[in-house]
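Worked Example 4.2. Consider the chain below.
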Amino acid sequence: MRRVDFDWFERHFPHRPSDAHKGTMGTLVSLTGSYGFAGAAILSAKAALRSGVGLHYQVLPEGIYPLFGAAVHESVCVPVKGDRGRLSPMDMEMIHPLLDKATAVLIGCGMGCSETTAAVEKIVLDTVACPVIIDADGINALARHIHSLEDVQSDIILTPHVKEFSRLSGLSVEAILSDPAKHAEEYSVKHRDVILVLKGHRTYIAQNGEVVENIAGNSGMAKGGSGDVLAGIIASLTAQGVKPYHAAVMGVHIHALAGDIAAAKLSQTAMLPSDLIDSLPEVYMKIEDTLM
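Applying the procedure from the previous section yields the following structure tokens:
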């Protein structure tokens, strides 16, 4: 098991050419949010945009469009009718052309745990060839059709916390907490078609038995919405062409560094997940200054 340092960042951090334009810096399509959970879509979108993606398309139920549009000005919004405030399989026909443009897809944040979420997710997994980042309710839905991962065309990044990982793996929470690194490694060997980001006090990123441990971050990040920020960062980096495993490792570390900056300024008690996003420019400045 290894940890990340700036030598690693120098090899894998995405380079922005001087002649770059929005079309060359990746296209992320997010299927996130539902009635009552507009914040999850907002946080993940803002984190993705702050992390450098060229184009961000937000597919969301029309009922939360006013909230999202007022909070996020840089995304291209695709409001759909939905079903009782949630994305529906009936909406997917109109967004197929959008998914064809994507260099990464984010699904799950705040979508709601329901049969419609599972159905939308399965359509995405059966359709797209680009990497797919699955978080939160997307993971809970995936637990119902985990066998579908056997036939996917794309790289899959899963970002569960311990309870979500328990649903995915069938292990008890107590067993996972007894040795999270071991269980992350074993899951990644069993499911070689996925990259696992097992979130917790220490976060472990695993693929094919290779595990990276993240030790940065602090308990002030233990608040609802922090995972949405992480999902947006990882999705953004992946959309920009960073290899999915490297994007997962890099995203976790950037997220943790932002958490440490926010805590230093605001305290672990008072900091919010939105403060992680506000701290991202300082993180990226430090990385870019080190790499130049």
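The radius of gyration is 18 Å. Residues 6-11+21-291 form a domain with the UDP-N-acetylmuramoyl-L-alanine:D-glutamate ligase fold (CATH 3.40.1190.20). Compare this with Example 4.1 before moving on.
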